[in-house]
């Protein structure tokens, strides 16, 4: 059968948004057009692709299978059409999923200088610690620590090696003592992180005598927001952990103090990553080149 490219675009948008109205807004068309388009696609295939309710839409088993098979190929086709149709400066919407701890990408200068250099590109950044497939989720690229990037992705360094820091305010340490070994954290008020309410808090990772080990500190305060962790530590509440780049400005101003440095080794840093494609979109190439240039500063 001959596939209607626009109907497949409608289907991918519905699969991503799980809502007809949101999919319509994403595509810049009416809700009715999306609904009718999905029905036409289902009729042409002779199968149900989505299950509808008054508020939600979810894919059927057949819809899930179709989505897995066409998401990446259609993304490649779209990139090729964009490349063929548009000459001159990069333009279009570039969607990037960025982990919340990627300070270098999120701090402002990288994004602002990219926006100034490429006014035709709309950079849509979603800050998320979800490690799902960026292609299936509709993103052009992502930013994560190198150790969690899939092997089949192309990865461009954003930073050099990174390390974590354990920090607290001077007032907290004066009142409660400075831990000399990670085990002593169990007697402190710890401010922890977890990716989602359904997951256990992150176990704090250390190294001693060449051996890595993780410590369950049972944090008294847990959040998925690094800024809240910092603010709570600044308020003399407890000890927290995070990336050195995140804490460095507070340490330089004397607002936070680093402890347990001898137990915190360096590891691979952050990378911009994306699927390998023969026809890479011009807008993505622009971001890759910008990241390479920015990483050398």
Q: Largest sheet, if any? A: 6 strands, mixed
Q: What overall form do the CA principal axes indicate? A: elongated
Strand content: 15-25%
| Domains (count) | 3
* CATH class division of the largest domain: Alpha Beta
User: How many H/I helical runs?
Assistant: 10
Radius of gyration from the alpha-carbon trace, in angstroms: 23 Å
Quick one: how many beta strands? Answer: 15
What's the helix-strand series?
HHHEEHEHHEEEEHEEEEHEHEEEH
Could you walk me through the main structural features you see in this protein, from its secondary elements to its overall organization?
By secondary structure, the protein is of the alpha/beta class. The protein folds into 3 domains: 5-69, Winged helix-like DNA-binding domain superfamily/Winged helix DNA-binding domain (Arc Repressor Mutant, subunit A); 92-159 and 269-295, Periplasmic binding protein-like II (D-Maltodextrin-Binding Protein, domain 2, 3-Layer(aba) Sandwich), CATH 3.40.190; 162-266, D-Maltodextrin-Binding Protein, domain 2 (3-Layer(aba) Sandwich). It is built from 10 helices and 15 strands. Strands 7, 8, 11, 12, 13 and 14 form a 6-stranded mixed sheet that branches. Strands 4-3-5-15-6 form a 5-stranded mixed sheet, covered by helices on one side. The radius of gyration is 23 Å and the shape is elongated. The termini are far apart. 30% of the residues are buried.
């Amino acid at each position: 059968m001959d596939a209607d490219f626009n109907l497949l675009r409608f289907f991918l948008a519905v699969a991503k948004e799980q809502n007809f109205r949101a999919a319509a807004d994403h595509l810049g068309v009416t809700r009715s057009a999306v609904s009718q388009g999905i029905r036409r696609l289902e009729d042409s295939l002779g199968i149900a692709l989505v299950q509808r309710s008054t508020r939600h839409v979810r894919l059927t088993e057949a819809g899930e299978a179709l989505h897995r098979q066409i998401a990446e190929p259609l993304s490649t086709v779209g990139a090729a059409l964009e490349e063929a149709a548009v000459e001159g400066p990069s333009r279009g919407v570039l969607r990037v999923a960025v982990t919340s701890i990627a300070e270098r990408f999120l701090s402002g200068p990288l994004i602002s200088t990219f926006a100034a250099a490429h006014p035709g590109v709309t950079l849509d950044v979603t800050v998320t610690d979800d490690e799902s497939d960026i292609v299936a989720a509709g993103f052009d690229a992502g930013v994560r620590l190198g150790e969690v990037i899939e092997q089949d992705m192309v990865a461009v360094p954003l930073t050099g090696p990174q390390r974590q820091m354990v920090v607290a305010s001077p007032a907290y340490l004066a009142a409660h003592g400075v831990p000399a070994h990670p085990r002593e954290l169990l007697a402190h008020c710890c401010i922890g992180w977890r990716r989602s309410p359904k997951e256990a808090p992150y176990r704090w990772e250390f190294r001693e005598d060449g051996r890595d080990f993780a410590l369950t500190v049972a944090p008294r305060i847990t959040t998925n927001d690094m800024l809240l962790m910092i603010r709570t530590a600044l308020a003399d509440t407890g000890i927290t952990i995070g990336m050195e780049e995140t804490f460095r400005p507070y340490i330089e101003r004397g607002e936070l103090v680093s402890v347990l440095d001898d137990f915190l080794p360096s590891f691979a840093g952050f990378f911009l990553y994306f699927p390998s494609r023969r026809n890479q979109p011009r807008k993505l190439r622009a971001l890759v080149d910008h990241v390479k240039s920015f990483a050398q500063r």
